[in-house]
Amino acid sequence: MSHIVTFEGKPPEGMINFGVGQPSADLLPIDLVQKATEDFLQAAQPLDLNYGVLQGDQRFRDSLATFLTKNYGQPVDADSLFVTGGNSQALDLICSHMSSPGDTIIVEEPCYFLAFQIFADHGLNIVSVPIDHDGLDIDALEETLARTKPALLYTIPSYQNPSGQTMSATRRKRLVELSQEHDFLIMADEVYQLLSYYDSPPDALGTLSESGTVLSLGSFSKILAPALRLGWIQTSNERVNRLTKIGAINSGGSLNHFTSHIVRHAIDLGLQQTHLERLRRTYRGRVEAMDAALKEHFSDHATWTRPDGGYFFWLKLNKDTSARELRHKAEEMEVSFQAGEFFSGSSRMKNYIRLSFAYYNEEDIRAGISRLKPLFV
Ligand SMILES: Cc1ncc(COP(=O)(O)O)c(C=O)c1O
């Protein structure tokens, strides 16, 4: 996967790069972090600067549980939460401690491309199962399970990266049943669960975590700021207990303890909720701007479904064109995107394009999409 160029900073001046799946600068709230930090420091006790308890600070988990209960619309128990340094780290931790090299992991096709590298780091054998408009294709999964014994399954149930699709409630339930019947763990990457712009998605898989086979991964990267490196795993008490036995946690205490104090204050002051609501309004405007611009310029060249949340449009080109080659041409016109093949476990999906609407305002979105138009004449 060394050919993938990931985003390391700002795109070059003048370039509109829809490949960037990150929030725009105007949505990274310095003032919020400042207020929450000041509020914390005013009340801080010296022991707040000591190691944190292994599972994560109780006060933070209480605040997080209250926040999730409100926004999931389902009760979330603070004891079911284990604090992490974000979903990338959580994926790495789970692979390290709940699988062995040579084990099989089932992933969605298409799948978040940077997860492939994490799974490869752990010597996991990747098997893909397709998704459709209702998320992971459960019939295809059952066929795969008839011949494969996975240790893990990785899914992004809501507003999937890259497809924008959401797994139906029925499939979520069936998936959990299958994990129990076939004895594998589900890593549900719920990083976009709260970024809904229309109706709410089905219940988070985290709310089914008492089943014992679900590890739901949540993060503040998409709802507050990626730099915080703060997230959580919601799972059964038994698995939480297993996570607290990890050597590095035993030695270093809770992951990212200091930041969890600041985010606790952001939640308790209501700042996190207000920010989430602002993100939903802003991203909804961007979704609609991108959808309208695509309809204007692309209707004859591609098909797509308008996402109801998350960050991404996933376009299927009508012709069997290589999106990767198109990207070279696009970059000459100072516009870019991610080519579909990077999201495939088997280098398929060459005629798909992923466009993120998170990094640009509505005006830039319209300008960028219209720059793509000459690619198809
Ligand atoms: C599906 C998915 N998982 C995980 C991440 C990274 O999450 P974190 O910043 O919490 O490590 C991203 C970021 O783009 C993502 O899209």
Explain this structure.
There is one protein chain. The protein is α/β, with parallel strands linked by helices and 377 residues long. The chain has 2 domains: 16-28 and 273-376, Aspartate Aminotransferase, domain 1, CATH 3.90.1150; 30-270, Aspartate Aminotransferase, domain 2 (3-Layer(aba) Sandwich). Helices cover 39% and strands 15% of the residues. The protein is built from 12 helices and 14 strands. The protein has helices at 30-43, 58-72, 87-98, 113-121, 138-147, 169-182, 237-243, 247-252, 257-268, 271-298, 323-332, 362-372, and strands spanning 16-17, 81-84, 104-109, 125-132, 135-136, 152-155, 185-189, 214-219, 231-234, 302-303, 312-317, 335-336, 338-339, 352-356. The strands form 3 sheets. An 8-stranded mixed sheet has the order 2-9-8-7-6-3-4-5, sandwiched between helices. The chain has a 4-stranded antiparallel sheet with strand order 10-11-14-13. β3, α4 (113-121) and β4 (125-132) form a beta-alpha-beta unit. The longest helix is centred in the last third of the chain and has 28 residues, at 271-298. Bound molecules: pyridoxal-5'-phosphate. The site of pyridoxal-5'-phosphate (PLP) has 13 residues, from α3. Pyridoxal-5'-phosphate binds at residues 21, 86-88, 112, 156, 161, 189, 191, 219, 221, 226, 231.
